[in-house]
Amino acid sequence: MKRKEFIKTSSATLAAVAGYTIIPSYVMGKALGHVAPSDKVNVACCGIGNRGSDVLNSLYKTGLANIVAICDVDMGGPQTVANMEKFSTAKRFQDFREMFDKMGNQFDAVSVGIPDFSHFPVAMLAMSQGKHVYVEKPMAHTFHEVALMMKAQKKYKVATQMGNQGHSEENYFQFKAWTEAGIIKDVEKITCFMNNGRRWHGMKVSDYLPSQPIPATLDWDKWLSTAQFKEYNKGYINGDWRSWFEFGNGALGDWGAHIFDTAHQFLKLGLPTEVDPVYMEGHSTLIFPQGSTLVFKFPKRDHMPALELSWYDGYNNKPPLPDFYGEPIRAKNIPPPTAGNIKRYPGKVIYGKDLTFKGGSHGSALEIIPVDKAKDMASSLPVVPESPSNHFANFLKACKGEEKCRSSFDIAGPLSQVMALGVLAQRLNTKLIFNSHTNKITNSSVGNELLYGPPPRKGWEQYYKM
Questions:
Q1: d(CA 55, CA 175)
Q2: Which CATH superfamily is 21-28+35-165 part of?
Q3: Interatomic CA distance for residues 407 and 242, integer angstroms
Q4: What percent of the chain has pLDDT over 90?
Q5: Which residues pair with 44 in a beta bridge?
Q6: Does position 266 have pLDDT exceeding 90, yes or no?
């Protein structure tokens, strides 16, 4: 090829792919295996301790990410030191807003591994600047925040992924294959349970916690984010935020997305018409109950019947299970939650018209029960394809235009809103009647206000207008 023709052809090729933030490897003809640094996704990580550390390292282990920035409000705290040393070349920040201002043009995607109530502003700022977003579950703290995040995904056309890892593992592909083949059909009842000890079990509070000295490494004002001011207390940080309605979404927000996520998607549940807290142990307006049973009622969908989903949490609040239930399903690669010396595996039972299934959490596969029925059907079950990528690689490949996110906000959003409605029923200890056409609670003005949550602190309002 003559030099002039080569330049013309090369320019046309580059123009064709100019729309990509990162050029997909298949466009450039790169060989499988080693991924060059220039072909990786530049990622800024918000939250590098505790669960944020797991997310950061899982993205890095895919070999598809350059970690170019790390951000944590407790930079230098005991939970962040190891990652500060490991990712020593990444720029460091304690304020995500400063990170975006100073190097927003140097990263393509953001991970959000911070408390539930503070997901929203980071994700909204990222999407508004065209950044792809990986956010831990639940997507956000309130029903309204989730709705705004779903709209932002459509508006800014970015790759988004919620961190329910099972959506890239066996249960996802099995549930999809079994529903399409008619193995799972005519489901009218699902029982879900998570009966392990939680941080708030045994707690009794009548007010917010008393003031304590703020650790030297922690920027408490930035930790509070959009939440109204509270005096610092260690009982709010490092996972204990999950105990408080104002900061977290409890056991349901923590585990619902790992237990009934695939049922929600492939049975097309959408939003419920009722959420009824039929049992409440130790109700409080500040912290989550010691145990609760919630009944969600979903209407008929297309050819599928109305469905009732029951959620059981609390150490002493075990669900009724079939006599032929057998041993619980154990999720692979996930340590079982513990309460004392007793291991209790979360799970579910799905009651179809002709078949009953039991399952665990995350990516664990369903089993037909009783065992004899499963043996009879073994030869007629459809082949379940293997996952082409884990949840973190799926996100990074979606950033590059090579795959589609399996738990994008349009899928994870309604699931997160179901959990947000359940949390409101726990908080108010009252049945909620919900109109999914207007997105209003029709029998509780307080509940309707809490769909939006309290107003953000002064200086944080702009994230609700992006």
A1: 25
A2: NAD(P)-binding Rossmann-like Domain (3.40.50.720)
A3: 22
A4: 88
A5: 69, 110
A6: yes
